[in-house]
Prior knowledge:
129 residues; mainly alpha; extended
Amino acid sequence: MGRLQRKKTAEQKKKKRTKAVDETSDVSENVAVEKREIVKTVFSRDVGAGKKSGAGVKASKSKGQSDNFYNKSIQFLREVKIELKKVTWPSRTQTMGTTAVVIVLVIIISLFLGLVDLGLTKLVSIVLR
């Protein structure tokens, strides 16, 4: 009936604890590396922005904004395309089956609500007479 449970030895418990500690240290190291990379990219963008002169920024502002908007739009569409490739689309038979279920449920619910409405209308007309 019941499953026999064996007690773990001290060595097995110790291995499990050290494994958990190793996994958490690996995660914290990865987080630290990612934070350093983010800081580098932020500072490299700020340094690049600081090199522009004030007059040059004003003169090319409208062109830069349209180029920036265009580049952001293209990047967005690329990301959408990548995400759509990850979607698991249902087969034709699955789509037909779920559509049939939805239609049947809509018909059943509409009939139920119609009967309730008809009954309440009759009840209200009887009470008001």
